[in-house]
Amino acid sequence: MLSKRIIPCLDIKDGQTVKGVNFVNLRQAGDPVELAELYAKNGADELVFLDITATVEKRKTFAELVKKIAEKINIPFTVGGGISTVEDVSLLLNAGADKISINSSAIKNPKLVDDLAKEFGSQCVVVAIDTRNINQIHVVHSHGGRTPTDKQTIAWANEVQDRGAGEILLTSMDHDGTKNGFAVELTNKLTKMLKIPVIASGGAGKMEHFFEIFEDNQADAALAASIFHFKEIDILDLKRFLHAKNIAVRLEN
Question: What distance in Å separates the CA atoms of residue 193 and residue 170, rounded to the nearest whole number?
Fold first, then answer.
């Protein structure tokens, strides 16, 4: 059985790590380079860096910041925000990213998923899906969760898998920052339908929430931000907790 992955997320705005609730009311959470280095040392399996306003502000992700973080860590590193071309991806991979995450650009131009998978391999392409439940329908949102689209979450996840995505990063906007638990039901639907890994994101508040999303072989990985940034949960303690509950995780010797 593959180990379940614990992934801290660095949401970046103006070069600093921030965190909000339901994608708004952002507050400072620390220096991204220092946090990345700390998480790599403390047992994180991967790291995700999302420049959350890159698309809204129509600019590119900070490649220099990516380079600084990559120099400090030895774990897989996914970067997203403002990526819309093959050239953008080349720049970020050359700066030290291992994978890239696309969201709004894939919604605007679904063929981008095909192009990136063909150029760099599916293992490099993560499609992030920000979803909100509207009238009992899971609706995909773009531009950092600000804009609802005409796409439904399950159908869109299936489409990007068919186009060559290697992984889905599923963020429930209804759960994001609430610390009331992940979107277990929706995540379970996706993992049963898809052949590619699903990273659950949005809502982690305590260790039990990670167990809930991992039990019965649901999510392949779980991503969280504020509980790690503000030292509410230690990653190694979390892994020991999961290991004691017979969840396969990577523990350092």
Answer: 14
> At what angle are helices 63-70 and 86-95 packed, to 10 degrees?
30
pTM assigned to the model: 0.90
Kindly name the residue from 45, 51, 88, 130 that is annotated as catalytic: 130
Q: Which of 173, 166, 179 is nearest to 221 (CA)?
A: 166
State how far Cα 156 lies from the chain centre.
17
Q: What domains, with CATH codes, occur in the chain? A: 5-244 (3.20.20.70)
Catalytic pick among 11, 45, 88, 176: 11
Give the model confidence (pLDDT) of 81-90 as tens digits: 889 999 999 9
Q: What is the DSSP letter of 249?
A: B
Q: Counting beta carbons within 10 angstroms of the beta carbon of residue 162, is it exposed (0 to 12), middle (13 to 18) or buried (19 or more)?
A: exposed
**What's the angle, vertex CA 175, arms to CA 170 and CA 181, rounded to 5?**
95
Active site residue 31: no
